[in-house]
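User: Show me a protein chain along with its predicted structure.
Assistant: Here is one chain, sequence first, then structure tokens.
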Amino acid sequence: MYGLKSELFDVPERYFSLESYEGGVARWCPGCGDHAVLAAVQRICRDEQIPTERVVAVSGIGCSSRFPHYMHAYGFHSLHGRALPVAQGIKARRPDLDVWVATGDGDCCSIGAGHWLHAVRYNMDMVVMLFDNAIYGLTKKQTSPTSPLGLVTNTHPQGAWLPPLNVIANMLGFTNVSFVARTVDWNPLHLHQTLKLAHAHRGLGFVHILQRCPTYTAEVFEELQRDPDRILLLTHADGVPADAALAKLYRNQREHDPADLVAARRLADPDERVPIGLFYRNPQAPLYDAFTRQGLGTANADKLAALERELDRFAI
């Protein structure tokens, strides 16, 4: 390369490729929607060039909670239903870290429901991904809080008796909620755009992911996957970006302002179509991080100021 001027080359000191974030080989079942979520998170980390030592994946128990094992980053595979308090503890002491929480419909909405409620209220800066396959998959097909009526499982061989928990409606009823979105694992573009928006949000970015389980609940999302007209695409300049490909695939669309909580709650009610996109966002909601960061700089004020500047980089 003799004779070429050095300013032609803007080579970063460290560059992270997709492979930089790949951990162990994912051992989910072939066709499991978890693979798509993992790929989307790795791509976001690569695009944002987040140092691997600053990424933390936290999970509870369940199929989706194998997530930390498949990220080349710090990870904490915690107890059943306890992913959120562990993630909050990490964020409280290390606000500079980029925290991703992987939890399932049973892990979050059943044994972890109490932590779910308070984590939303605390609104700490992290991404929470609810992998919803409507079943307890790791423990081999028991009814979960989101199992549809009539679903035959090992715990309800004559079919689930109770209506499923409405994840979005519950989220929109929690105090101090700041970001609520839904996406589907079988549309990698919408999945990526939704997680990217949640990651850019300063606060708890909650994403409800309709996620296929080919082993136990293949039929639950089959109609949604085959018939895009069953899906309602939420569009707005402040929402999940909908390019021409998404607009062409999902003909049923609705302009929805994510600042309108009342309208978001109406959309959360069961209908013949399933809305995907950004339901609600409030960037002004108070963050508990602002309180937990107090005192971190008593020994080193410069370090605290640096952490504050780093957090501001990702604020909307």
